[in-house]
Amino acid sequence: MQIQLTVNGQQHSVDAEPGTPLLWILRDQLDLTGTKFGCGVASCGACTVHLNGTPVRSCSTPIESVAGGEIVTIEGVNDAVAAAVQAAWRERDVVQCGYCQSGQIMSAIGLLRQNQAPSDEDIDGFMSGNACRCATYVRIKDAIKLAAQKLEA
Questions:
Q1: Are 33 and 27 spatial neighbours (Cβ–Cβ below 8 Å)?
Q2: Are 111 and 148 members of one domain?
Q3: Are residues 59 and 88 in the same domain?
Q4: Full domain range(s) for residue 142
Q5: Which strand (E) or helix (H) includes residue 54?
Q6: Are 29 and 87 contained in the same domain?
Q7: pLDDT tens across 27-57, in order?
Q8: pTM for the complete prediction?
Q9: In what order do the strands lie in the sheet with 10-15?
Q10: C-alpha distances in Å from residue 51, one per residue of 58, 63, 110
């Protein structure tokens, strides 16, 4: 079936079987490989993208459910919140292996768009669906706090 998508501000027409996960359309048809496959069951967060401004797990989001929506991947985030998060990630040297980081960043952006002054509990709760095999959770939390400070300034 043909589906019309808006991804990172661009219109795309894709051909996909019903039930095909959005992740595979992004990676295999649109060549947007920043979104990663981690678990396939929406448990690790590596595949996080924004759908109409809300973080979703693209590995478990059927393509037909996103028709007409605005999808943004790690390649397409470009507002002040995204810039603050990306700068904080670099300043706090968050990345170790890097595999989970696009999902972590997309979730952190989603958090800070909803709450620009999150508490530790807010961060822990919002980010709990993102796994990091290298266990950089302390640096991730510190970077989110730094990004919040940058947005405040």
A1: yes
A2: yes
A3: no
A4: 80-152
A5: strand 54-57
A6: no
A7: 999 999 999 999 999 999 999 999 999 999 9
A8: 0.96
A9: 10-15, 2-7, 70-72, 48-51, 54-57
A10: 9, 12, 10
